[in-house]
Amino acid sequence: MKKQLFPVILNFHSALFLFGFNYICQKLENMKYALLFIVGIILLSCGVKIPYTDEIRDEFSLNNGNLDKVQFYTSATIILERVTSETNERIIIPVNTKCVWQSTDKSGNLIIRFDESSESTLTFKSTSNRGKMYLYLKDFNSNGKYAVVYYNNLKYYCTSSSGNAYLMVVIKKI
Predict the structure, then answer these.
(1) Is the distance from CB of 75 to CB of 168 less than 8 angstroms?
(2) What's the CA gap between 122 and 45, in Å, rounded?
């Protein structure tokens, strides 16, 4: 009689274990979907950085009266270098640096400020119709590797790769 009871007890425990394991797996599966849902909501609530274009300006009716309320960001690292007889100065503006609108020039280029000083500005220009606002580089040297920009009222050189930097905005915040 004892020998026959053991397999029945073993089967009962196995069934109970399998039932409990299956129940836990179902709960974890439901929790996985709930977790994915929560993460999705959090990601959607965060703004997404997109290039600032004439189209964005027009869509949100941005003009000189309200551009100062827009938070801009740089899309790439900008490196400015200035060599004098006394120093070799380098300013690095990292990717995603926050910056603000200061003014718009006669050509529609945006003058963007990078700190509290009104001279700490760079100019961004739309290079094509309804395109992104790229760092405005001018006066390239003879081999086309360096361009002139003015920052803090001083003449700096930056590599042409800095010209790949354009302005971005967080669309949710607009």
Answers:
(1) yes
(2) 31
The domain segmentation of the chain, as residue ranges, is: 1-46, 49-170
Q: Which of 22-31, 59-68, 121-130, 144-153 has the lowest mean pLDDT?
A: 22-31
Interval 71-98: pLDDT, tens: 999 999 999 999 888 888 999 999 999 9
